[in-house]
């Protein structure tokens, strides 16, 4: 049983041929990025072609799940009604450790929005949204947060 931060009514991501491997890894609580097997470039989000060398050959490269806040915003208005009691919440771009600058957009959880600063260390916190769907959220590194 993992923690939950967002309601079931959140729009579910739709996997496609390029992202299904990423979502399969996420379901197993493995944070990965796409690695070009021709030049070694790491990229996220997944795409069909390496932006550096144009190769279509790639594999999934596992990350430690740590990173730093690259930028963030605080959401104060619910875009779906069931989010109203989650306000305010933090949308964050995390620069992933060991990912050659690749970033992921997610949520920073278990934190007061006014405590968030650019550059703060964060770590992945998996949220199981269903039996085959896990979404990586992030929390302040080393902080076992309390539910809000
Ligand atoms: Zn490449």
Give the gist of this structure:
The protein is mainly beta and 148 residues long. It has one helix spanning 20-27; strands spanning 32-36, 42-43, 58-62, 66-75, 89-96, 103-108, 121-130, 133-140. It has one domain (20-140): OB fold (Dihydrolipoamide Acetyltransferase, E2P).
Q: What would the average pLDDT be, to the nearest integer?
A: 93
Structural class: mainly beta
Q: Mind summarizing the main beta sheet?
A: 5 strands, antiparallel
Order of helices and strands: HEEEEEEEE
Helical run tally:
1
First-last Cα distance: 18 Å
- Low-confidence regions: none
- The whole-angstrom Rg is 16 Å
Q: Report the CATH topology name.
A: OB fold (Dihydrolipoamide Acetyltransferase, E2P)
Measured as a percent range, the helix fraction is: under 10%
Which short descriptors sum up this protein?
OB fold (Dihydrolipoamide Acetyltransferase, E2P); 8 strands; 5% helix; 148 residues; 1 helix; binds zinc ion; globular; single chain; three-stranded antiparallel beta sheet; mainly beta; five-stranded antiparallel beta sheet
Task: Describe the overall structure.
By secondary structure, the chain is mainly beta. The chain has a single domain, classed as OB fold (Dihydrolipoamide Acetyltransferase, E2P). It is 5% helix and 36% strand. It has 1 helix and 8 strands, in the order αββββββββ. It has a 5-stranded antiparallel sheet with strand order 6-5-4-7-8, with helices on one face. Strands 2-1-3 form a 3-stranded antiparallel sheet, covered by helices on one side. A hairpin with a 6-residue loop joins β5 and β6. The radius of gyration is 16 Å and the shape is globular. The chain starts with 19 loop residues before the first helix and ends in an 8-residue tail after the last strand. Zinc ion (ZN) is lined by residues 36, 38-39, 41, 50, 52-53, 55.
């Amino acid at each position: 049983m993992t923690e939950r931060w967002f309601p079931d009514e959140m729009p579910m991501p739709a996997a496609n041929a390029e992202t299904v491997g990423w979502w399969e890894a996420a379901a197993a609580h493995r944070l990965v990025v796409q690695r070009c097997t021709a030049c070694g470039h790491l990229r996220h989000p997944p795409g069909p072609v390496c932006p550096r060398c144009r190769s279509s050959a790639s594999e999934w490269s596992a990350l430690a799940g740590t990173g730093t806040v690259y930028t963030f915003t605080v959401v104060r208005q619910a875009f779906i009604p069931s989010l109203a009691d989650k306000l305010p919440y933090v949308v964050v771009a995390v620069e992933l450790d060991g990912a050659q600058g690749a970033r992921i957009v997610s949520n920073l959880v278990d934190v007061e929005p006014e405590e968030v600063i650019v550059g703060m260390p964060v770590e992945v916190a998996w949220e199981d949204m269903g039996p085959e769907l896990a979404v990586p959220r992030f929390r302040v590194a080393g902080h076992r947060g309390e539910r809000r």
